[in-house]
Design goal:
binds magnesium ion; 20% strand; binds thiamine diphosphate; binds iron/sulfur cluster; single chain; 3-stranded antiparallel sheet; alpha/beta
Length: 347
């Protein structure tokens, strides 16, 4: 008679799924790569929030970071675009079906170097999309050249220092129209999770710049995107708690200690003050902070900016409830008479 205990029952989320459908294939990235931690958080966040995996559309470009969508949400839709061109593909897909939850995961090179033109125009449009930048300051896939987010003075593995000023994707995001902008560190599990959950509830463009060290090409002394640099210079602006609408817990909190921001689905971000009293709805304060910390070398992390009022591209275009991609030909194609009339007017 066997004495083996039966396996423990699988823990199901609120839509009755266990974690398996939220996973992807086994990672082929280097052991210790920050991107692997981001993939793990994405699996947890979508599972814990009970998002249907097949309601998600994943987009990426080219790079180690852009390979990551293979390692989470294996049952979701996915498109691996040309280097730097994922924003255009995501825009088209989301306009065709705005019922999908768009998730773009890519790199700092993909975003701030070859894809900068696409990134800028995406920011202006406030497309409902979660845009995660796995920022390691280098082109990991092509063996560690500096990317446009590398800090001045940051040293490459061979000792050469970067001399060009960095592009700050968050600063650009706040300035040009993204409506949730956050910076975090792949090693800060709690903060990254709270930020990603807030993005799922946000209706608009979320930019999440995750400092995600490349252990193979940019984790040495002198690098400003290494694990040790982040451990010494991470300056969390606040402690974040994401409270989903279906789990609203009333807790007694001393006045002045906590700021609450309500998201579109009624969920809340509870922002507990740490060192400074930081208000992420104040755009100018966010811009000033990023300029200040660029000088001091600190990395301010947390939700830098949030605007829950601005309308999205979908609202602006009046796309209605039913996705364009599912409308019948009779609704999207003008009848012959309409075309004849246009031709008549052009005579
Ligand atoms: C059009 C084009 N130009 C250049 C390349 C070469 N290339 C591949 S990945 C990459 C940079 C990737 O850097 P990043 O986006 O930061 O991703 P990481 O590998 O660091 O995650 C480059 C330049 C390419 N694949 N396609
Ligand atoms: S080369 Fe760097 S970015 Fe690429 S998988 Fe390895 S550690 Fe990650
Ligand atoms: Mg990179």
């Amino acid at each position: 008679m066997s004495t083996t205990a039966p396996p423990p029952p699988k823990k199901l989320n609120r839509i009755g799924l266990d974690v398996v459908p939220y996973k992807g294939s086994k990672t082929t990235l280097c052991a210790g790569c920050g991107n692997n931690s981001v993939s793990e958080r994405l699996v947890e966040v979508f599972y814990e929030m009970g998002v249907q995996p097949w309601d998600v559309a994943k987009f990426s470009g080219i790079g180690c970071s852009s390979k990551s969508p293979a390692y989470f949400l294996g049952l979701s839709h996915g498109f691996n675009a040309v280097h730097g061109r994922a924003p255009a593909v995501a825009t088209g897909a989301m306009l065709a079906n705005h019922k999908l939850l768009g998730l773009l995961v890519t790199g700092d090179g993909d975003t701030a170097s070859i894809g900068i033109g696409q990134y800028i125009h995406l920011l202006r449009r406030n497309l409902p999309l979660i845009y995660v930048i796995e920022n390691n300051g280098v082109y990991g896939l092509t063996k560690g050249q500096f990317s446009a987010t590398a800090d001045i003075g940051s040293k490459a593995k061979g000792g050469v220092a970067n001399e060009n000023p960095p592009i700050d994707c968050c600063l650009m995001g706040i300035e040009l129209g993204a409506t949730l902008v956050a910076r975090t560190f792949s090693g800060d599990k709690r903060q990254l999770t709270a930020i990603l959950k807030s993005c799922v509830s946000h209706k608009g463009l979320s930019i999440v710049d995750v400092i995600s060290p490349c252990v193979t090409f940019n984790d040495h002394e002198g690098s400003t995107k290494s694990y040790s640099y982040m451990k010494e210079h991470d300056m969390p602006l606040h402690a974040l708690d994401y409270v989903p609408t279906y789990e609203d817990i009333t807790v007694e909190i001393a006045e002045g200690e906590v700021r609450e921001v309500e998201l579109h689905d009624g969920s809340k971000i509870r922002i507990r003050k740490l060192g400074r009293d930081y208000n992420p709805t104040d755009k100018m304060a966010a811009i000033t902070l990023l300029h200040e910390t660029e000088k001091t070398g600190e990395v301010a992390t947390g939700i830098l900016y949030v605007d829950s009022k601005r309308e999205t591209l979908i609202d602006q275009l009046g796309l209605g409830d039913e996705p364009l991609g599912t409308l019948p030909q009779s609704k999207v194609r003008p009848p012959k008479e309409a075309l004849d009339q246009i031709m008549e007017e052009l005579r």
